[in-house]
């Protein structure tokens, strides 16, 4: 039985029809892992294949010979699956809604017919610049539709795209261009964001000083701002797109040909180029977009991530478009012109699905519910979160004020490396528990391992580290140019499984709770604790907006607990409050969790995707801030200086 076959059920109490009911989930899940070939063989039919596959799964997790292949003899084109095949039925349907940074400027509604025209033209521009199958193209663009056109144009001609987040520095950009030996980079003149402008072309000029002079620079004139121009190297993309043919035959690709490389942070300074495949990746994101979000025709999906992150790849571009959906792309930020912008956009475009990160929810929660209440959010049907564990307070705020208690919330756990969702609740089928990513996606086999011995811990009510015991189609295939590092990073520590790097608990109901990266586990007087637990307690206090907890060397306890706390607006930072918070955590979790040091933090060091950079916080807490390592991915480096200046541990 495939997902589409599960009978649609009406669930009681006026709730909506659902594609999968609770019994349907259990049945499907157990089928999916009992016979993965049969399950994924059917799921593969979600795509259009030029040559059908006869083999489904061919994977080996054995150290020294790790090899992951899915649908290996199948031939397809990812762009055709996201664009061409929808034309007979959806030519006039909106594929992409684009909401600009400045709300007074008009939104764009790009139909599938227009998407096809633009992507074909962009593909012809790439061909005219000598881009061939297998060549790498770096995309350094703001959140504009041309970013999606560029990704799909690469897919159309078999080039491998590598999107670099527009907030990254010239250094980070040149490192990535060099690591994948890109033939060209696609950028824009400038990028408006929150009323300010980032000089992308100037950044690219700076980056290209450190790259081969054969690298071409394709420029989208987005704002029309003045930029430097190097004849012979720089190309005006939009002008060329008007000249070339709107017809570019798609290149038939093998399922295992790389679709894209996406760089993610590792523990060393060197970027880690995660490689995803054409066939398996697309099957996984097509399925999870449909099932996790209970997708239905005519709805409007908004994922607020940036296309520079995996979330943007899978759930702004490939997942929604493979399903013939309507995907909203937002150029701006949640708090400009004011803290109501997200909700204004939901209202304006009648968004049905809103998918964001807990950090954004906490930030908006700190601004008060009146910003949400100004807007009509009755179009919303499903809410989602991704990126980190959501603390129950933020979950309840999201549920009450945004979802009005009537929208299921899916908490999706996954990674750049996994391609798509791995653990998540399902609307109407898997009941949520605030803070838990709940149960595995079909075909995914999570296991909890003893961190020290690597043994599989069976049963419920257990805790350990999270690994995946067998492959799934969206799994990364290798690290670009370094298969050995791939094996070492993910398969060496716990042989025979893919190691996620996350800690987790499986509760009495079999629900998974991610306790944070394993390196975030601290050991205080012999007690192992996830820093997330203490943070969750701190942010439950009415005066606390955000908190980050790390360990630091402590003479008596081995590790002490160091908490960075951001207070709600206008709350004075006093010693009384510090004592109150210590007592609060002690009361919430127990005496063992009481922070030893609390530092008031006006801001926390975050990546542009909103992840707190704990490595930096650990260094400051250890009073060892001389070598902070690579801070190129920080959203606001000034935050770090402030924290160093006011550090609490000077011993
Ligand atoms: C998609 C994405 C991956 C890491 C992952 C985990 C954390 C992501 C989460 C979550 C708890 C969730 N994470 N989703 N933790 N609950 N729903 O974020 O990819 O940037 O590679 O980060 O993020 O620690 O290992 P990526």
TrEMBL record:
ATP binds at residues 387-389, 411-416, 502, 517, 528. GO terms for molecular function: acetate-CoA ligase activity; AMP binding; ATP binding; metal ion binding. It comes from the Bacteria. SUPFAM superfamilies: Acetyl-CoA synthetase-like. Pfam families: ACAS_N, AMP-binding, AMP-binding_C. GO terms for cellular component: cytosol. Residues 86-471 form the AMP-dependent synthetase/ligase domain. CoA binds at residues 193-196, 311, 525, 586. CDD domains: ACS. Its EC number is 6.2.1.1. It is an enzyme of class 6 (ligase). Residues 533-611 form the AMP-binding enzyme C-terminal domain. The modification N6-acetyllysine is found at residue 611. Keywords: Acetylation, ATP-binding, Ligase, Magnesium, Metal-binding, Nucleotide-binding. It catalyses: acetate + ATP + CoA = acetyl-CoA + AMP + diphosphate. InterPro entries: Ac_CoA_lig (IPR011904), ACAS_N (IPR032387), AMP-bd_C (IPR025110), AMP-bd_C_sf (IPR045851), AMP-binding_CS (IPR020845), AMP-dep_synth/lig_dom (IPR000873), ANL_N_sf (IPR042099). Belongs to the ATP-dependent AMP-binding enzyme family. This is Acetyl-coenzyme A synthetase.
